[in-house]
Amino acid sequence: MAQFVFENDMHSLLKLDMPITNAPMARWQRKSASTNTSVLSPSKSMNRSLSKSKTPNKTPGKNGKLQCTPSKVGGDRYIPSRNNKQMDVASFLLSKDNEPADPNASTEMQKAWSVNLNGYDVEEAKILHLGGKPLNAPEGYQNNLRVLYSQVTTPVSMKKSRYISTVPDRILDAPDLRNDFYLNLLDWSSQNLLAVALHNSVYLWDASQGDITLLMKMEQEQDYICSVSWIKEGNYLAIGTSDGKVQLWDVEKQKRLRSMASHTARVCSLSWNNHILSSGSRSGHIHHHDVRMPDHHIFTLTGHSQEVCGLKWSPDGKYLASGGNDNLVYVWPGVTEGGNQGAINCFTSHQGAVKALAWCPWQHNILASGGGTSDRHIRIWNTHTGTCTNSLDTQSQISSLVFAPNHKELVSGHGFACDGLVIWKYPSMTKVAEFLGHEARVLNLALSPDCSTVASVAADETVRLWKCFELDPLTKKAKEKMAKSTNSIIHQGIR
Amino acid sequence: MSSTLKGITLKGSAELVAEFFSFGINSILYQRGIYPPETFTRVTQYDMSLYLTVDPELKTYLSNVVTQLKGWLFDCTVQKLVLVITCLETSEVLERWQFDIECDKTVQGSSGPREKSIKAIQEEIRSVIRQITATVTFLPLLETACSFDLLIYTDKDQVVPEKWEESGPKMIADSEEVRLRSFTTTIHKVSSMVAYKRTDCV
Lengths: 495, 202
Prior knowledge:
The complex is a heterodimer of chains A (495) and B (202). By secondary structure, chain A is mainly β. In chain A, the strands form seven sheets. Chain A has a four-stranded antiparallel beta sheet, with no helix packed on it. In chain A, strands 3-4-5-6 form a four-stranded antiparallel beta sheet, with no helix packed on it. In chain A, strands 7-8-9-10 form a four-stranded antiparallel beta sheet, with no helix packed on it. In chain B, helix 1 runs antiparallel to helix 2 and helix 1 packs parallel to helix 3. Chain B is of the alpha+beta class. Chain B is built from three helices and eight strands, in the order H-E-E-H-E-E-H-E-E-E-E. Chains A and B meet through strand 1 and helix 5 of A and helix 2, strand 3, strand 5 and strand 6 of B.
């Protein structure tokens, strides 16, 4: 036990809040010792809130010493505290007597008002509290619970897992849609126009107004449209056709601006990077077109041996991902002046055609790819290191992938055997929801400009809109404040 | 505790409830960090270890309130006990613990003790106090120095004793409310809830 005695002694020595025994008394102590008799105790008639609760302490003549002491309660100056007093009630009561009571006001209304305002029924109860000096913690005491509890989330007001409706928000008819896995016939512009290519015509559906416009129809009967892609601003639409040409249309004027021929086979994938339009064709070649120049074809990327069905530029415009029927995924660097344009990465893990490609908008260098019927896997790649960070077997053909930034999720569109859409939480890749409304395989997905809705087109000749990424109002407001609009170079003129 | 072995009388019930409040208020003051934890000591009560303050002023204040409360519980004139936590600088109410008390008035005139075992009542009290401790996980942190006040809602015609004053309800403007458990002694029923200022965190 001796060590405890020692420990206790040490503790009592180190404790600094024991009373000081061998120093002269502090000024305030001397004062209170000498003025004890003259302090008035709080008066008994304290029922009305108008009376003051404190009475000033009379200070005796100075003691001669000129030390400064902090003014504690009962010290030199009287500082009234009005916090406890109901000043508004008091002033109302004072002024009320001058006005005659209103005979017309019904007592029930008054009672309801008074319950609401006071928080309780004034007739039934009254609230009392023990008056006197406020009991506060010693000065300088900091609440150090922060050390224990670092998270300040309140589960009561926290949003529970959101309600995702399993029925589509809207269903649009898409008759004559070509049921071809390799085509990309759906795209949603930043101006909220949904472009759908039905056989040899392109229709635009205005998502905000709901009306449909026929943009163009191909001249030759045997030709058909293979891909559509909106430019970032949403005023120009690129259309790839079966005769190997890429057409550029001005949507506001409903006029074709140019028709670019460079491919030898059908153009089934398109992707924009500011003013560069990349097109992938059945020949396995990818062409870069600078749409501002008359000599538009500026570069060719060779690598794929079969149809290039998936083509996506990364959001920062630095990399181009391409997926082909040869089961390969290539990552190409951005277009530079001259220089070697060899592929940075070549991913061979897929066992089926890679049409589904998506870059993660909130994380750099993350690419998601999905394989066709023979593969059925979603793979997440880090293009910086060239490794596959995650791989998931979805049990069905994957035709399209889209990242949904609102809740950090990945949506996949499936063909055989699922025929629907699946939402996965990223990066954990846990299934969040499944939509099985389509009656045939899903061919393409497109995300709305406000990221709240995903549109899917399927072989059952319908376009279904699924509103599953609604933001709650708080986050929506925060996002709107942060939103900046970026313009691409294209605004500076395209003839 | 001083109730009879079988059954609860009005006096016994008043004592039980007052004792609960004394421990409950101390627990809240400790858990929410209104006073430094060094000023609390541990005691065993209701088969668990609880904290009681050793600060002499605070002890006197609390014992005054609890004694008065016991008297009012015996008269069945008290309706609520509210512990209000306010920020010292801005005088804004940050938290409000409200305990509603329902008193069965029929027991005043009539017969002998009610049937309920002390153990059962203690069990219930224990779960309420455990819940109070658990609320710390979701209540927002009290960053600024705070003061507390105890308000008692009594009947309109209650005589106001010495040193007590009338006060407003001190409600919180934009509040989240959480209902906690309740316990009953068959004569008094106490239900608890805590309201706190909603913090705008995403």
